[in-house]
Design goal:
It comes from hydrothermal vent metagenome. The chain is an alpha+beta fold. The protein folds into two domains: 18-138, Jelly Rolls; 146-226, Arc Repressor Mutant, subunit A (Orthogonal Bundle), CATH 1.10.10. It has helices at residues 18-27, 83-87, 108-117, 119-145, 148-163, 179-186, 190-202, 218-225, and strands spanning 28-33, 38-40, 48-54, 57-62, 68-74, 79-80, 94-97, 101-107, 164-167, 170-173, 206-209, 212-215.
Length: 231
């Protein structure tokens, strides 16, 4: 699944030298957030950049009729709240804790100064934003061009590339999502996701054990990477 490298989680702090990392902590504030608590909402000022240290958060927006559309999930080491670094202004999405989380919040102006001091950080940010734009572009294309079965299959493939581990002929998804969360990522209903997953199980394309999904057919993954769908 190397073709899908661009969607893998990126640990922002992984390659930092100790001095650069310590300086980042010095200009930021470490805070704890309870499950389901909003970190920021759409329309709020983009005053901070965040690095997730522990837990999981989701980035989402609400449609005009109140439907939640999940853009992605962030895991430890990942940054979020970055868009306003480039364009300024108010948030267009919301961030909410999916579990108890700990994060480092850094003032926008302080983070800009930090990037000026460490230009390699700015290059990482550009790469990260480019990857996220590419992923969102693919999601939009899938919403327009694919039927719901294809959308579910492509979602599972993206999750496998981002959070999966190869286990022989299987790919284990190392993330537990509810059917509702999956539905909110591809613009469908919880019941539809349940129906499609049941159909894929009957075709031996995946199995579910202790709420963990295992993709059974590597040919399926390769076919989606190549732009084809196995029905």
């Amino acid at each position: 699944m190397d073709e899908l490298w661009f969607v893998r989680p990126y640990d922002f702090l992984h390659d930092f030298n100790s001095h650069a990392e310590q300086e980042l902590y010095e200009i930021g504030l470490t805070v704890s957030i309870n499950k389901d608590q909003l970190i920021f909402s759409a329309g709020s000022p983009g005053e901070y950049v965040y690095i997730l240290l522990e837990g999981r958060i989701k980035i989402y927006e609400l449609t005009s009729d109140g439907k939640e559309v999940i853009h992605w999930f962030c895991f430890p080491g990942e940054l979020f709240g970055l868009a306003e670094i480039v364009r300024g202004g108010r948030r267009t999405v919301a961030a909410q804790a999916c579990s108890k989380v700990k994060l480092l919040k850094i003032k926008h102006s302080d983070f800009v100064n930090y990037m000026q001091k460490y230009p390699d950080v700015a290059l990482r940010i550009i790469g990260l934003l480019s990857c996220r734009l590419r992923e969102l572009g693919d999601v939009i294309t899938n919403l327009v061009a694919d039927d719901v079965t294809a959308r579910v299959m492509k979602l599972l493939t993206r999750l496998g590339a981002r959070y999966g581990s190869d286990e022989g002929k299987e790919v284990r998804l190392n993330i537990c999502l509810t059917h509702q969360e999956m539905a909110d990522m591809i613009g469908t209903t919880r019941q539809t996701v349940t129906t499609v997953l049941s159909s894929l199980k009957r075709k031996d394309l995946l199995r579910i054990e202790n709420k963990i999904i295992y993709i059974q057919n590597n040919d399926w993954i390769n076919s989606i990477v190549d732009g084809k769908i196995i029905h």
